[in-house]
Amino acid sequence: MPLVQLDELSDRQLEFTQAGITNSPEWLKLERQLSLHEQLQCLRYVSMEPNPLPKVQAQLQNRNFSPQISLKQH
């Protein structure tokens, strides 16, 4: 299974990853918008990264992306 680098993920994939980590209700909506392949890329990244949330959030900010989901963890 090849490693997935953070910069290889699209904005939508980053948003999906963030929603999954924070247990956001937006996760299900985003899940329907991504192919299984795109979802697996997100899971590969998360499985190889010990603390992915801060890095995902920073990448979203670096791309000048304004997340529409709450960053608050449940």
Please give a structural write-up:
With 74 residues, this protein is mainly alpha-helical. It has one domain (6-64). Helices cover 59% and strands 0% of the residues. It has helices at 11-22, 26-33, 36-48, 52-62. Helix 1 (11-22) crosses helix 3 (36-48). The longest helix is centred in the middle third of the chain and has 13 residues, at 36-48. The protein starts with 10 loop residues before the first helix and ends in a 12-residue tail after the last helix. The mean pLDDT is 87.
What key attributes describe this structure?
74 residues; mainly alpha; 59% helix
Biggest sheet overview: none
Overall geometric form: globular
Number of separate strands: 0
The domain tally reads 1
Which regions have little confidence, pLDDT < 50, spanning 5+ residues?
none
Tell me, rounded to a whole number, the average pLDDT: 87
Oligomeric category: single chain
Residue share in helix: 55-70%
The structure class reads mainly alpha
- Count of alpha and pi helical runs: 4
How would you spell out the order of helices and strands? HHHH
N- to C-terminal distance = 31 Å
Rg for CA atoms? 11 Å
What is the strand content? Answer: under 5%
